[in-house]
Amino acid sequence: MYVRRLELHDFRSYAEAAVDFDPGSSVLIGPNGHGKTNLVEAIGYVATLGSHRVATEAPLVRYGASRAIIRCAIVHDGRELLVELEITPGKANRARIGRAPATRARDVLGALRLVLFAPEDLALVRGDPAERRKYLDDLLVQRQPRFAGVRADYERVLKQRNALLRTSYLARKVASRSRRPAEPVDAPDLSTLDVWDLHLAAYGADLVAARLELCAALGTHLAKAYDAVSAGRGEARLAYEAKSWATPDEAGRLAELDRSEIEQRLRAALAEARPSEVERGMTLVGPHRDDLMLTLGELPAKGYASHGESWSFALALRLASYELLRSEGIEPVLVLDDVFAELDTGRRERLAELVAGASQVLVTCAVPQDVPDALRGARYTVGDGVVSRVA
Amino acid sequence: MYEGAIQDLIDELGRLPGIGPKSAQRLAFHVLQADTADVTRLATALTRVKELVRFCSVCFNVAESERCRICRDPRRTDETICVVEEPKDVVAIEKTGEFRGRYHVLGGAINPLEGVGPDSLRIRELMARLSAGEVKELILATDPNTEGEATATYIALLVKPMGLAVTRLASGLPVGGDLEYADEVTLGRAFEGRRAV
Ligand SMILES: Nc1ncnc2c1ncn2[C@@H]1O[C@H](COP(=O)(O)OP(=O)(O)O)[C@@H](O)[C@H]1O
Ligand SMILES: [Mg+2]
Ligand SMILES: [Zn+2]
Predict the structure, then answer these.
(1) Which residues line ligand 1 (CB under 6 A)?
(2) What are B92-147's pLDDT values in tens digits?
(3) DSSP helix/strand/coil, B13
(4) Which of A108, A250, B9, B164 could cross-link with A246 by S-S, CB 3.0 to 4.6 Å?
């Protein structure tokens, strides 16, 4: 598939913009701070309903405007689909697909498959577990959009459960401070905790089962991709890690657990952790604490891999997403946002070779010489918010 | 900011759910320009609703006497109770024409983020109704969102020892939504396809 046209209205630095693209590779060139990333960020938003740079929506709306609009024409199998998204911070976003009446933004998921490479990707290897969970969950939603709902349900239950634990924690604190020695402390009302446990375990099991299945599917693609970008300099692997609810002897065979076994394990772990959760006033067990363990040869990548190896690993994770999505029948759009500036010549050339055959590659850069010949295609300049095709 | 009475009206309207400052202003000026008779009718309706309408002593639906119209209807069966969050959900289900039993209006759903626990809902009153022993089926028709599902599970666990049939509306309802916004056909189907919990 490819993006044929992008139109922006009050998105980031753009009051108005419209850009037409061809399949194959397009290079957007311009000085830093002139709006290159803003353009591809908009395309990324259509695919994932999130930004690769910020977690909130306010920065996506042009300063002083109240809402942003992204319109995107996507061509897939010779058919064109028009998607329009309206982003209003603090309110539910609205979407239109084709000529159908407006729907929930979530219905747009699946219309555009996309893999985005960005300088921020180094955090996949070096950053917190949250970065790696987001990597898995975003890919999960791209493959099966219904997981956007599962993820949202899990997060909502977690929020409610935390609120309950927190209120009871605060109530106990206040009571113990104001209590005269003879008075008993009122037991804070935790009677609904069992219910939240059941629901957390149910949605959590859906999420974990899907993440495990995804990890299994990614494994060989990752190893191959690392081998290719690093020119055969080691074996990259990934393993799902669930320290908050799996016992150490289960750790090695998480992949063998089915959904209902996972649910049982989560319930048991919640029951076991109940006293400490009540004591600390927060949820300590569940997939929101899981991680993806990345190893290079015998060593964990985090803390051990060199700068260059970490970059190879991050690229390999994105390339693995790309290979997995296309192996399932849909050629995703690739976005390479300012990544060549971060890489040495060898990695640049190898990355370019690997992605040059994609149905569409959108590359942004400040210095055109950084982009390998394999990706020379249409050229655009981006300056002061004006995008123009030059070749 | 306007002066005196008009600003008072804007402030009062702005406190209503779903009315932002701009809508409040528009409504206030609409009232200002309307016929006196129309405004008087609106004012009377507002005061009368508080004077005359109260909550049914059995099911907590809105009522104009001690018991609501549905609880007084002898043609309806006492063997089935449908549990909903709000009176407006009763209206939505009545429109489907699928249900001939009685209701129980909880007055909300369990929601720790907003400080709503089971004690703030009419769950104790529901248990009292069930302990009379006439009810054979309990239909949990709370909203198909996180809080509604949690409330349904909570009640299902509570009444389990009583041994009556407990059902939940079939999926097909828009998830994350409000019962009252489901169209009649969808809601009617959800009723027919309800499943045991
Ligand atoms: N919400 C916004 N409103 C107005 N300007 C914005 C907004 N968000 C970012 N910008 C501006 O966009 C520019 C950054 O654009 P970006 O696309 O990241 O640059 P680059 O070309 O280096 O990729 C900055 O000058 C920033 O001030
Ligand atoms: Mg940039
Ligand atoms: Zn009644």
Answers:
(1) A 12-13, 30, 32-38, 59, 61-63
(2) 999 989 899 999 999 999 999 998 999 999 999 999 999 988 999 999 999 989 99
(3) helix
(4) A250
Range in A14-18, A350-354, B14-18 with the lowest mean pLDDT: B14-18
- Residue A248 pLDDT > 80: yes
- Residue pair B81/B139 in contact by the 8 Å Cβ criterion: yes
Residue A76 maps to a domain:
yes
Residue B67 placed within a domain: no
Nearest CA in chain B to A199: B150
B118 and B149 fall within a common domain: yes
Q: Are A32 and A105 in contact (CB under 8 A)?
A: no
A167: which chain B residues are within 8 Å (Cβ-Cβ)?
112, 115
Using CA atoms, how far apart are residues B174 and A249, in angstroms rounded to an integer?
A: 41
Write out pLDDT tens, residues B11-33.
Answer: 999 998 888 888 999 999 999 99
Domain residues for the domain of A40 are 1-113+332-391
In a domain? residue B39: yes
Lowest mean pLDDT of A21-25, A52-56, A364-368, B182-186, name the range: B182-186
Q: How many domains does chain A have?
A: 1
Residue A59 domain-assigned?
yes
| Position B136 in a domain | yes
Three-point CA angle B26, B30, B34, nearest 5°: 175
Nearest to A153 among B115, B117, B146 (CB): B146
Please, which residues bridge with residue A381 across strands? A29, A388
Contact list, B119 vs chain A (CB under 8 Å): 189
Is there a contact between A195 and B153 if contact means CB atoms under 8 Å apart? yes
How much is the average pLDDT of B149-176?
85
Q: Model ipTM?
A: 0.84
Pairwise CB contact (< 8 Å): B150 & A153: no
Total number of domains in chain B: 2
> Hey, what's the torsion of the CAs at A338, A341, A346, A351, to 10 degrees?
0
